[in-house]
Amino acid sequence: MSRRLIGAFLLLGTLWGSSFVAIDIGLGYFPPIEFAALRYLIAGVVVLGYAGYSTPRWRPQTRREWLVAAVAGSFLIGGHHAFLYLGQQHVSGAVAAVIVSLGPVLTALFAAGVLGDRVTSLDFVGFALGLLGVFFVAQPGVPDGIGQSLVGRFLALDPSALLVGDGIGVATVFLGAACFALGAVLTEPIETTLPPRTVQAWAMLIGSTLLFVAGVVRGESLAAIQWTPVASLSLLYLGVVTGAGAFLLYFELLDRIGPTQINLIGYLEPVSATVLSWLVLDDLIDPLTACGFLTILAGFVCIQRRSFVPAVASRLPSIARQW
How far apart are CA 323 and CA 152, in angstroms? Predict the structure, then answer.
């Protein structure tokens, strides 16, 4: 992997990690679901314009093409971000990023159930580690004033308190991660020749429409938005930079390094989200949450060992030579 690709990979992880911080900031001015809807309306228009410029087909034509866009829009954009934005009203962006990193583990679980992929005992270990990591992040029963001690917070865990306090926010973000994972599995067998940028553009627009409807059903109103410079900046950053720009960079990297290694982006996001949350909001995750992230990462390695370990091992010599 060249230095340029490594730099692009790190940039993408930083951009997507920063989106959790921008959501934290914007939620002070926007109703949550309408905030997500506006973000992906902007992103969808930008990506559609780029798709029209750079690809031979800017819109779906067959039923199968509309189906893949609709499924992606419903799950990858609509469901995922509705739960994410609702959950981030209760947990920080850094914590939400850790929970979202469970996505590849959940994807393997849904692939086993929906596509019939073979599941081994080590896969079950991976699933268990992923759920255990989310439990560490939720920290049920841990009082706010207990301090930052890893051992102290661990001993204070109480599974019976999962449905109160921050546990509700963790569960809501978890549902968002599950929607994304299920959407990834459901779109996989729908083969089309539609360019990925076009699929993504229409998925964003369809997802944005569904989010607007969900916001209305929930009683949210665009009139409740507080249009301040900070609010506008957070929305434009999420829509143009981390929405449209980062997704276009993602597809470029996907073509260059493949799906196995691109999944590692999900484990760079919590790191960048944590650092940026500390720098911008003076908000830092505690050691038990960091332990939860490492546990989820271990679960990912267990599940993706067949493709991930050989792929990374084969890249190490070339990376070392580059640096």
Answer: 41
Residue 274 in any domain: the answer is no
Q: Is residue 22 part of a domain?
A: no
Q: Does a structural domain hold residue 65?
A: yes
168 burial (CB, 10 Å; 0-12 / 13-18 / 19+) is middle
pTM surpassing 0.85?
A: yes
Task: Say which residues have a Cβ less than 8 Å from residue 113's Cβ, sequence separation at least 6.
Answer: none
Residue 20 CA to residue 289 CA, distance in Å, equals 16
- Whether the Cβ atoms of residue 83 and residue 173 lie closer than 8 Å to each other: yes
- pLDDT at site 323: 45
Does residue 217 sit in helix, strand or coil? helix
For residue 57, pLDDT over 50 is answered with yes
Please state the length of the chain.
Answer: 323
Residue 125 has pLDDT above 60, yes or no: yes
Transcribe 40-78 into DSSP letters.
HHHHHHHHHHHHHHHSS--S--SHHHHHHHHHIIIIIII
Contact between 248 and 12 (Cβ < 8 Å): no
Report CA 55 to chain centroid distance, whole Å.
Answer: 26
Structural domain for 124, as ranges: 33-222+284-322
Distance CA 59, CA 15 (A): 27
Closest CA to 251 of 261, 262, 240: 262
Residue 1 confidence (pLDDT) above 70: no
59 pLDDT band (50/70/90 cuts)? Answer: very high
CA Rg value for the chain: 19
Would you say residue 162 has pLDDT above 70?
Answer: no
